[in-house]
Amino acid sequence: MDWWRPDIVYPVLGALGAGAAVGLEREFRGQPAGLRTHLLVCLASAFLMLMSAEQGVWVRGLPMDMVRIDPVRMAHGILTGIGFLCGGVIFRTGVAVHGLTTAASLWITSALGMLFGVGLYPLAITATVLVLLVLSALRFLDNIIPQQSVAHMEVRYAREGAPSAEDLQRQLREIGLKNSTFTHKLLERGAMLEFSANLRGRHWADMERLLEVLRGDARVLEFELYPRKP
């Protein structure tokens, strides 16, 4: 069998180019899944779809009227496997969730590979261009669209002389921050008191003012602030 047919070579080259384009963008942004990962995902999806189309070859010996070619089942299996891979790049710190865009880029890169694998070249090329536009050209919207600041705060005081929850809430209101109900916790066998809450402000300058207040408060033993978007 001639494996260098255009209907086999072109999908592989297309998947190689699409995976490289998306992977380079992710690599440039310093994301955990970069060039090699996106290339492998795109190529694997294309190869598996090509394999499903060539099912008559790898089940040789059976009468052709018994062979049922169903690429949709292969596509379903590919997306299920990619779901496990995408779940591995998503993690949470406080209220911050990291890796969602990388997981989405892996998922759609797999879809690009499948599009090339089944020979839908116009749709695959259009989708690749749109993906690159979303990942790169539209990033400037992050600097234009007004965004509230959201963070998770944990601050620890010595139990003796620690402020009350009302005093801490008053400080936050003066800074311009809103908070959910405080969580209280005794640490170090009762020697330390911890307050934790999710905070919301109008802009990131409010969080900077909070940092100044906490650093300047001699009663604060430790504090941690986890922004939603670093």
In short:
The protein is of the alpha+beta class. It contains 8 helices and 7 strands, in the order H-H-H-H-E-E-H-H-E-H-E-E-E-H-E. Strands 3, 4, 5, 6 and 7 form a 5-stranded antiparallel beta sheet that branches.
Model description:
By secondary structure, the protein is α+β, with helices and mostly antiparallel strands. It folds into 2 domains: about 5-145, no CATH class; about 150-225, 2-Layer Sandwich (Alpha-Beta Plaits), CATH 3.30.70.260. The chain has 8 helices and 7 strands. It has helices at about 5-30, 35-55, 55-60, 70-85, 100-115, 120-135, 165-175, 205-215, and strands at about 90-95, 95-100, 150-160, 180, 185, 190-200, 220-225. The strands form 2 sheets. Strands 3, 4, 5, 6 and 7 form a 5-stranded antiparallel sheet that branches. It has a two-stranded antiparallel sheet with strand order 1-2. Strand 5 (about 185) and strand 6 form a beta hairpin. The chain is elongated, with a radius of gyration of 26 Å. The termini are far apart. The mean pLDDT is about 80.
What key attributes describe this structure?
single chain; 230 residues; alpha+beta; Alpha-Beta Plaits; 2 domains; five-stranded antiparallel β-sheet; 8 helices; 7 strands; 18% strand
Average pLDDT, to the nearest integer?
82
- Note the overall shape: elongated
Q: Tell me the distance between the termini.
A: 54 Å
What percentage of the residues does DSSP assign to strands (E)? 15-25%
The whole-angstrom Rg is 26 Å
Structural class: alpha+beta
- The ordered H/E elements are HHHHEEHHEHEEEHE
Number of domains: 2
Please give the share of residues in helix.
40-55%
Unreliable segments of 5+ consecutive residues:
none
Strand elements, count: 7
Largest beta-sheet details: 5 strands, antiparallel
By DSSP (H or I, 4+ residues per run), the number of helices equals 8
